[in-house]
Each structure stands twice: as C-alpha cells, then as structure tokens.
Amino acid sequence: MKWHELDKTRLVLEFERIKKFYPSFQICKDEDNIAWEGAVSLIPEGINEPPLRIRIILGEGFPVVAPKIKPISPEIPEEVWGHQWHRWEDGYLCYVKPHLWKVVYHITDIIEKAEMWYFNYLAYKHKLVDKMPDSGFAIL
Amino acid sequence: MEFADIRKAMVDGLGHPDYEDLEPFETVPGTVVVFFMDIRGFTKLSIALDNQELIRILQAITVASILSIKSFNGHIAEFTGDGIMAYFGGRRPTSEQDAVSALMAAGYMMREIKGPVNSMLSKNGDETVRVGMGLEFGNVLWTRIGLPETNQVKPISEVTFVAGKNSSHTKSWEVLLGKNIAEWVPEQFKEKAEAYKFQKENKDYTYDRYMFNWESFNTQLDTNQVWLEWLLKNKKLPAITPLIMSSNGSISTSAGNSSGPRPLKDQPFFRG
Question: CB of A130 within 8 Å of any CB in chain B?
Fold first, then answer.
C-alpha cells in the first residue's frame, strides 16, 4: 500500500499548498511514485541562465523519508556532484541532510529550498562565490 | 487494521492500545510517562551463563515486570532484550494518577525483583540480578514507525530517549527521573542527580535529573498510602506546553512554534 493511500489527508494537504503557493508545479508520476514537476527561477542578477525544471519525487517512505529532487532541464553535468555542489552521485539535489528532515516539512518548503539550491549553484558555477554555502543563500 | 494485525496485537499485548489504530506515518500529539527498566550487567551475564539460565532469568524478570506494570494500569511497550519499556497514560492528557501509578510500579517492581524474584532465582541455583530504572514525562508524538508491512507504534520525543538513557545510566537498584516528572515528585522522595550533559554543534545542553528515593516512597506507601496518594494527586504535574496539530497538519506548541523544528529553508544542505 502506498503512503498516499494510507494518508490521503496529507496528499490533499500537499496538493492544496502547492496549488496555492506554486501553482505552476504540476502533479505527475515518476515510475510508481507521486511527484510534482515545475521550474525554479531565482537566478543571480547579471547571469543569463534558464529556470531549472525539477521533479520532486515522493517515495515509499514519505513523509518520514525526505522526497528526492531530480533536476530535469537544463541538464546538469554528471560530474557535478559531491559536497561542493550539494548533489548526490545519482544526480539528485541534496537540499537537506537526511536526518534533519522532519515529517512536518511540506513540498512547498522543498521547492523553496530548491530555489535556494539553484541560486547558489549558478552563483558558484559562474564564480560569483568561491563555494556553495552550507546553508542559506550565497551572499554575492 | 487487518484482522491478523488485531489478533497479533491481542496476543503479544505490547504497544499502546489507545494508538493501535494509527496508520503508518500518521502522527498524533500526546503526553505520557515513559518507563524503562534494565538489568544491570546483562551483557556480562550473557557471556558468563548458559542460555537456559539466561532464559530463566529473563522470564522471571519479564513476568514480574508485566504483572507490576499491568497492576498499576501501565502498558508494556516492548521487551528491550535486557529489560522492558512501558507507558503510563493514554489518549487523554496524562494525569497525576498516571504519574502516581508509574512511581508505584517502579517502587513495587524494585521491591519484588530485589526480594521474591531474586530469592526464587537463588533457590533454583540461578544467578540473581540487579536492575535500574528510568522515567520521564512530557510531550510525545505518537506514530507508527516502519513500513506498511513491518512497523511499530512509538511515542517519539526526548521523553522516550531521556527515560531510556536514565535507565541505562543508573547503578543497581537506582531509579533516575527526568526533570519533568521530578519537578512533580515531592522533595522527600528525590535527590538531585548528575545532569545529562552533551554538546552538539558547539552548543551545550543540560538535562536535569533526580534520583527517586523509592525505598522511602515504599515505606510511606506501606504506612500511609491514603496520605501519600492525596499528597501526590494534589500536586499538579508540571504544565507541559501541549503540542497542537493545526488544520494544515503542522505541529507546534500553543505558545507559538519557537520550539518547533527549524524551517527547512534554514536547515543546512548536505555537509559531507
């Protein structure tokens, strides 16, 4: 049985929050999992880059286990992973240390964090900062 | 819940009957007294003794624990291997009666294990045991941890872990109380103990603890139970700011969410 069959209220709650705060994000499926797809577009001033399209995948263990963020487009080079990029080897974005994930966090919180990740990524990629910060926005 | 699950819950009798209907990942705020009892030095015994004897010891302690906890209206949460974990209190807010029951169970169990249980073990030629206990009261978030097919109801918060840590930090025949339940226990039945201290991310944490004078408590119980119960029930348990689940599913204290989790945006990214 899937998490959303056991906890329909949570699914409705996430759906309503996303509709309200990030209406451009659309619910979809990623293999057998429920996911939301949309773009984050917070880009450092003076940089010409497209918004990052992401898919937030809610796996079997949600909400106890943090969802994954898969970058869809533009493509982020495979070799861009590890601590300096805050990205897992399998390509998912690392937006929170797994043990710091809390069941009360919402998908909207993740989108907000993904905005932050992309901003920091672009700032680092374009050498506006010398490292991606461990928390918060990069200070330019 | 499937019939098989219900039957299993009835047979093993572990957990908490008020929360058996929790679905995996569902969370319900509540308050509870969490109780732990550990056999001291059991790893050493397990190496030194043969398995048949270990079973006889464990069975004696477990039976004594079940009977003690149940006779004071507690619920056995689980057998921890070398002890037990139990709850006092249910879905309604924890009452002074629940806390009285927890103390009485601790005192009674200490006396039973130290006396009749060890006498029986000794008479059978088995090793006698020494135990320690830990208790704490406060807010918890009840949930069903695990996967849909393999899971267990648990009260999650520092209360559970402090009670467990207290029990493991006791010497033989000691009962260590966390600061919340200790605040309510009358002075004559407690003594300040070493606080639980640790450091995390350059911040110092201190959790006050008290030793429960269970022998003096038992003496009072034997000589003047009516007075003792009156004394305890007339002293209010410390006001623990209740956890509130709002209509949007977020959980906070009624005083605001200052003690709630740090917002995700403020949590660090992965730090290697």
Answer: no
Is B157 contained in some domain?
Answer: yes
Token representation of residue B52: 């048949």
- Cα–Cα distance, A22 to A16 (Å, whole number): 10
User: In the prediction, which pLDDT does B255 show?
Assistant: 42
For residue B253, the model assigns a pLDDT of 53
User: Which among B25, B261, B266 has the least Cβ separation from residue A3?
Assistant: B25
Look at B271 and A83 and tell me if their CB atoms are within 8 Å.
Answer: yes
Domain boundaries, chain A: 3-125
Q: Is residue B272 part of a domain?
A: no
Average pLDDT for B75-84: 93
pLDDT at B1 over 70: no
Q: What is the rounded distance in angstroms from the CA atom of residue A2 to the CA atom of residue A7?
A: 9
> For the stretch A43-57, what's the b/e string if a residue is b when 16 or more beta carbons lie within 10 angstroms of its beta carbon?
bbeeeeeebbebbbb
Contact B109, B39 (CB under 8 A): no
In a domain? residue B245: no
Domains in chain B: how many in total? 1
Q: Which residues pair with B85 in a beta bridge?
A: B36, B78
Of B143, B265, B272, the CB nearest to A116: B265
Write out pLDDT tens, residues B109-157: 999 999 999 999 999 999 999 999 999 999 899 988 888 788 889 999 9
Check: CB of residue B212 under 8 Å from CB of residue B105.
Answer: no
Is B219 a residue whose pLDDT tops 90?
yes
CATH classification code of A3-125: 3.10.110.10
- Indicate if the alpha-carbon torsion angle A124, A130, A132, A136 is positive or negative: negative
Q: What is the CATH number of the domain that holds B39?
A: 3.30.70.1230
Three-class SS of residue A109? Answer: helix
Q: Answer yes or no: is B244 within a domain.
A: no
State the nearest Cα–Cα gap between A67 and chain B, in angstroms. Answer: 13
pLDDT one-digit tens code per residue, A18-75: 998 999 999 999 999 999 999 999 999 999 999 999 999 999 889 889 999 999 999 9
Interchain proximity A6–B24, CB inside 8 Å: yes
**Residue B3 DSSP SS3:** helix
- The one-letter amino acid code at B99 reads A
Please tell me the pTM assigned to this model: 0.60
**Domain region containing B204:** 13-232
